[in-house]
Specification:
CATH superfamily of the largest domain: LON domain-like
CATH class of the largest domain: Mainly Beta
Shape: globular
Oligomer: single chain
Order of helices and strands: EEHEEEEEHHHHH
Strand content: 25-35%
Structural class: alpha+beta
Radius of gyration: 17 Å
CATH topology of the largest domain: Archaeosine Trna-guanine Transglycosylase, Chain: A, domain 4
Amino acid sequence: MTDKQEISLFPLRVVLFPGGRLDLQIFEQRYLDLVSNCMKNDTGFGVCLLKSGEEFIQGGSKQTIHRTGTYGKIVDWDQLENGLLGITVEGMSKFRIGDCWQADTGLLQAEVEFSQIDGVGIESIPLDDQFSGLSDLLQNLENHPLVEQKNLSIDYDNLWDLGWRLSELIPIEIEQRQHLLELDDPWERIESIEQLVSDLANNS
């Protein structure tokens, strides 16, 4: 993947992190075409959080998006019982949006710059003992049936993995999740998560 690239965007009310998995039901024609093209050419698309507007665009409505998202690739697909196409997308690398525009197909297109560090396959950062509590929390969260279904591959001795997975799984506001994604420093991310977890414990 080059540093800068033109990709299609899929605006959603969800934040995807590298290594995370997201199940989607596809029914709009523009996204059916996008999925078909991705599977044919072994490419992916960008998942980014909606600031305003709906996931399903109706006549005259507009979407605005956050400028930091995650590039995902389709790792599984199936026809669902309701007849719709279901896909599973796995996050690969964080990106930041430069230019963004709507193509004739209705898809949002963007020129993005990929993070050189915040992505799957980068060198791991061994965990300090000080984060053993967060590691235990993640293991407890992973045992939840809804999380187990995702079949996540988690390296519990890697600071990147710990930060990504907790960012996705702890019960926080969507804007807080987006803020965690936008952080480039994994230490700053894990310290922010520690504070959020502490706040949750104190408010429970």
